[in-house]
Amino acid sequence: MSYTAETLQLLAPDGTLRYSDETERYRDRVDALDEDTLRAFYRHMAVTRRFDIEAGNLQRQGQLALWIPSIGQEAAQVGSGFAARAQDHIFPAYREHAVGRLRGLDLTRIIAMLRGLTHGGWNPADTGNFHLYTLVIGSQALHATGYAMGVRFDGLVGTGDPERDTAVLVYFGDGATSQGDVNEAYVFAQSYQTPQVFFLQNNHWAISVPVSVQSRTPLYRRPAGFGIPSVQIDGNDVLISYAATAESLDAARSGEGPRFIEALTYRMGAHTTSDDPTKYRTSDEVAYWQERDPISRFETFLKARGEGDAFFDDVRQEGEDLAADARRQTLAMEPPPADSMFRHVYSDEHPLMAEQAEWLARYEASFEEQA
């Protein structure tokens, strides 16, 4: 499944900006973007991709058990991530590396998690309300909806105060749309008119199952059946990703209820590094999407606006520096102490955890005594 007649697009694959009757409403949002913001769009996409490649290399070299690449999906993530405000809460799946970086997440925390050195990853309070990666497919949609219900109960919606009104943004993939959790989230979101945006990154493959097998109609039409306004956008166009998400988040914060965005993009790499995509997709399909690469498209756009080589050289160097630093940090990582498994099980100290920690300490000490 490629673009449809309903797909909203601002930046064409050749890097030219085009408006239509359907996208004219986004013109003011795009015109308001200054040069620094446009450069930041590109920088975050390109630097995150370079990190992504390095993390995949580290996994191939045995430095972590698994890596989950997001190559090809940078525009969907960066555009939507920029649209969120500081007080908004982000619920990712497990591929939203660029969004996490935007919110202040040190990307090596993802490596540590996939290397098996943490029990969850990070504290959202320390990462700009960017919540934990969720490997249970689709369950984050319910987590986000429950949180958004709480936001509404707390009166943080529709006050007219842009520093106070809060929205929730939840990401998931096309495979998750077949999960009951996601559809149940639609029901509760619409029933409680939650201030949230469902952001579907349709990368066309739920591991080895194509989206055409999951749905005979575009996926953005499903939430419309629940009464949730929805749009389909070109997920490789960072401008429409930003503009459509900003519009949807504004509506959610103002009390107009949930919104849904289907971003048509493509997973250029494997589902994870345990997967071999050559077994189920064709080289012609991959080549089609390579021609629509989000980063090269935006680079063409910026160069047409007069951006010089010095900027792109600087971005490339930043990416190389980040990759090298990630490698250094990964190789220096050490296993956590065994007693860390007892921490944060309960919010307060708990006698059962203390008892188990003491038992483990005695058990390990017994081996030293025998030696």
The total beta strand count reads: 7
- Fraction in helix: 40-55%
- Oligomer state equals single chain
> Radius of gyration from the CA trace?
22 Å
- Give the strand line-up of the largest sheet: 1-2-3-7-6
Spatial separation of the terminal alpha carbons: 64 Å
* Helix count, DSSP H or I runs of 4 or more residues: 14
Report strand %: 5-15%
Segments where pLDDT lies below 50 for 5+ residues?
A: none
Mean pLDDT: 96
Overall morphology? globular
Largest sheet, in brief, is: 5 strands, parallel
Give the helices and strands as they follow along the chain. HHHEHHHEHEEEHHEHEHHHH
SSE-based structural type: alpha/beta
Summarize the structure.
The protein has 371 residues and is of the alpha/beta class.
